[in-house]
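Posting for a labmate who doesn't have an account.
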Amino acid sequence: MSRQVDSYISKLLDGQGLEGDENDFCDFTIADQNSVAESQGITPTTPSNFKPVLGGNVTYVVACVIINDREELLLMQEAKESCAGKWYLPAGRMEKGETIEQAAAREVLEETGLHFKADTLLVVETAGGTWFRFVLTGKIIGGELKTPAKADKESLQAKWIFNLQEISLRANDILHLIDKAKLYKQSHPGVSWHKNILPAPVPHVKDLMRLIVLIKKRSTNRLHVLLSEKTTLHFPTCEINPAKSMHSTLRRFMVEMFGADVAQHRPLGLLNVEADPSADGCCLSLLVVFRPPLEEVPLIGKCAWHELSEDVHKELLPIVFSKNSTIELHVVR
């Protein structure tokens, strides 16, 4: 099992998905979360059999931050009546049967006239547990920039823009994403940035959060990873509650495994995203690191610590201590 766990972590770091029955278990379902809430006198608002339906009860959005060699940003001018004339990133809702990359390429083409090839996920944004925005960056590989003469319901035109002060943005929520893409372009390829990671084509019928929880053992100075012992050894996984923020769902799951006095820890970001159009769910693999040593963190759930090999230990250390070493998870309040 030791080699298998090391192999799984290496796969995640390479942006690959985890397949197989042992990676399809859910330790903290919405039914479990509802039971905990009821035991605390809280009436749950989400049905225990909740299942994400794209375009129904969940929304997946793609947004593309594309910067050319002249440091210009590709923006489109909105045609929608509510924000006509304002500028924004090429973005839009995913449609049934699309991968995240396909949705991104379609939106860029429809709104700018250009052909886009994604290089990597930069950020995943969530609002509650029902709205996800997958932010990608990459390069233009062809097409013809949309002019006002080709205006349609998708956009009025598109432009490469260097100075954002010259235009009026539809919303400032993309400024953070633009800054992130600029840093990526300046740093890549560089040791401080994660590898180019695109969504792995693994289908999920539920929206899941898989935790890669790391801790260092004081006596050996080696990293250990948390494994769930329910049914078979696997990384702890919970359903994303559509009625709660990701932070809230993470907190509840950590309390389930470590108790109400769970030691200080922090989520660093996502190692990868798994999604496939054959199902409407997704799985976000979140890296979480404890500050105290293993000797000071008791477990109350059916879990165990697993010592990682020296090779994987060395591979993970710079990720734990470097900025931009994971895909940013941005929880919108």
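Reply:
Got it, the structure tokens are right above this. The two ends are 39 Å apart (CA to CA).
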